[in-house]
């Protein structure tokens, strides 16, 4: 049972990482596609996934987790096949959107299906195994993508199909049947507002190099207005897409902001380094994928130790240390310049610093889900996942703006400056992160929010 739900976690994560390395091949196959056009292959996935995580979790509670999990897995498989045979970029984007819908269903339902069958003393181990699959997907994704793209980028999506078929066969056999729970309202309007706000802001940033300035500002302004409208809606709706009571917990609010800030720099640095290697230095896709391996290995090996580090030194020190390492990763790229490609002195130190930083920052910020009331842990986890996807989308969009239509040293320098700024902001969130918040404090804050 744990293998089935972990396979779903692996599929949804590995596709995101593998596509990063396939950008040059996608641009060539869909020529004359600009970088801003291909960037939507990432952004449409992350935006839709972020907006639908909480509604999908509530829908699963309404109609049953098993049924929705299997439906989400089937949709992910069919849409993956659609991506693999896509004749045009537009068709590929539509299929990526459907993939995101499937992933949004899989993520909140997967762990909640498996955990109840484990004894209480084994659940921590089960969660650790499930989470480590995501870390492994991050490690293997770029390398797997590089191997597959050597033949064709379409194999990145084709390989999902047999995994989905196996998962469906096993899932129908081993997943427990569950009935519908207490019916929860689904905030359709709030979901649409979040989706539209994120989409318009990312569209304005991504398409800024090609659009007239007047159009860019109008679209950006509309997105910001919808963003403010969605916040007002959340505070007034009886069952909003994002429960405002979660933000009464100080550590949760700050961690959410920290995740957005960190993933803006993370998304820009990851894709920027990939483009530097493949498009600017003319590395093969496989060479570029292997170039990421040392940093991803450090991130995967060190992440399980982050819990002990936080317990020993506290979340503030751990997060600030990670932010410093991430800032040094961006700063190194600004000072270690060379007129010729120099992986060992320019790129490898940056990747190693990022790997260590990620192992400290991401688990520390996601620990905030434990700070919210126990009944809201699922919603809290979904909100933190939304923050991660939002930051990644903004990072990719800002990278397109900073690189412009032609790759240059100056454009890449702007990306590294963005990474440093992201690290600084993440470090600030670490400095103001509460050391602890008593149960009494939390109850008082929740009561104030409820009364308001």
Helix content: over 70%
| Class inferred from helices and paired strands | mainly alpha
What's the number of extended β-strand segments? 0
Order of helices and strands: HHHHHHHHHHHHHHHHH
Give the oligomeric state.
single chain
- Radius of gyration, in Å, reads 21 Å
Gross CATH architecture of the largest domain: Up-down Bundle
Estimated share of beta-strand residues: under 5%
| Helix run count | 17
- Biggest sheet architecture: none
Form type: globular
Distance between the termini: 43 Å
Q: Characteristics of this structure?
A:
mainly alpha, 17 helices, disordered C terminus, Growth Hormone, Chain: A, 452 residues, 3 domains
Give the SSE map.
Layout: H1 2-21, H2 23-29, H3 35-63, H4 65-84, H5 89-114, H6 120-149, H7 155-158, H8 160-174, H9 188-206, H10 213-236, H11 250-280, H12 285-302, H13 306-335, H14 343-366, H15 377-403, H16 409-432, H17 439-451
Helix pairs in contact: 1-5, 1-6, 1-8, 3-4, 3-5, 3-9, 3-15, 4-5, 4-8, 6-12, 9-10, 9-15, 11-14, 11-15, 11-16, 12-14, 13-14, 13-16, 15-16
Give structural notes.
By secondary structure, the protein is an all-alpha fold. It folds into three domains: 1-176, Growth Hormone, Chain: A (Up-down Bundle); 187-238, no CATH class; 243-452, MFS general substrate transporter like domains (Growth Hormone, Chain: A, Up-down Bundle). It has 17 helices and no strands. It has helices at 2-21, 23-29, 35-63, 65-84, 89-114, 120-149, 155-158, 160-174, 188-206, 213-236, 250-280, 285-302, 306-335, 343-366, 377-403, 409-432, 439-451. α1 runs antiparallel to α5, α3 packs antiparallel against α4 and α4 packs antiparallel against α5. The longest helix has 31 residues, at 250-280.
């Amino acid at each position: 049972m744990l293998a089935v739900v972990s396979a779903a976690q692996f599929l949804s994560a590995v596709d995101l990482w593998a596509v990063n390395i396939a950008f040059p091949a996608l641009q060539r196959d869909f020529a004359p596609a600009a970088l801003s056009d291909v960037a939507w292959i990432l952004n449409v996935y992350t935006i839709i996934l972020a907006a639908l995580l909480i509604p999908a979790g509530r829908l699963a509670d309404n109609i049953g987790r098993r049924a929705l999990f299997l439906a989400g897995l089937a949709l992910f498989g069919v849409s993956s096949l659609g991506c693999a045979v896509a004749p045009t970029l537009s068709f590929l984007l539509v299929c990526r959107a459907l993939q995101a819908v499937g992933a949004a269903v899989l993520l909140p339902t997967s762990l909640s299906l498996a955990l109840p069958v484990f004894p209480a003393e084994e659940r921590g181990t089960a969660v650790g195994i499930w989470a480590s699959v995501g870390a492994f997907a991050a490690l293997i994704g770029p390398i797997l993508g590089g191997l597959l793209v050597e033949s064709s980028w379409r194999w990145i999506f084709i390989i999902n199909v047999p995994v989905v078929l196996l998962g469906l066969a096993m899932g129908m056999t081993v997943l427990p049947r569950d009935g519908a729970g207490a019916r929860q309202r689904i905030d359709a309007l709030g979901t649409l507002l979040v989706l539209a706000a994120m989409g318009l802001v990312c569209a304005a940033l991504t398409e800024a190099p090609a659009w007239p300035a007047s159009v860019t500002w109008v679209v950006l302004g509309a997105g910001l207005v919808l963003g403010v409208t969605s916040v007002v809606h959340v505070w007034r709706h009886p069952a909003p897409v994002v429960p405002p009571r979660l933000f009464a917990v100080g550590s949760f609010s700050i961690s959410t902001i920290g995740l957005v800030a960190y993933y803006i720099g993370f998304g820009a640095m990851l894709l920027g380094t990939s483009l530097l290697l493949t498009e600017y230095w003319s590395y093969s896709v496989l060479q570029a994928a292997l170039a990421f391996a040392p940093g991803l290995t450090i991130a995967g090996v060190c992440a399980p130790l982050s819990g002990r580090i936080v317990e020993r030194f506290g979340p503030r020190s751990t997060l600030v240390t990670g932010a410093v390492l991430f800032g040094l990763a961006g700063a190194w790229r600004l000072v270690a310049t060379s007129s010729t490609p120099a992986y060992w002195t320019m790129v490898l130190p940056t990747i190693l610093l990022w790997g260590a930083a990620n192992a400290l920052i991401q688990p520390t910020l996601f620990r905030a889900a434990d700070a919210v009331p126990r009944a809201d842990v699922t919603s809290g986890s979904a909100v933190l996942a939304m923050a991660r996807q939002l930051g990644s989308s903004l990072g990719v969009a800002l990278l397109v703006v900073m690189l412009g239509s032609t790759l240059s040293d100056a454009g890449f320098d702007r990306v590294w400056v963005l990474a440093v700024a992201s690290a600084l902001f993440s470090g600030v969130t670490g400095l103001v992160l509460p050391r602890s918040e008593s149960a009494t404090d939390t109850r008082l804050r929740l009561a104030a929010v409820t009364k308001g």
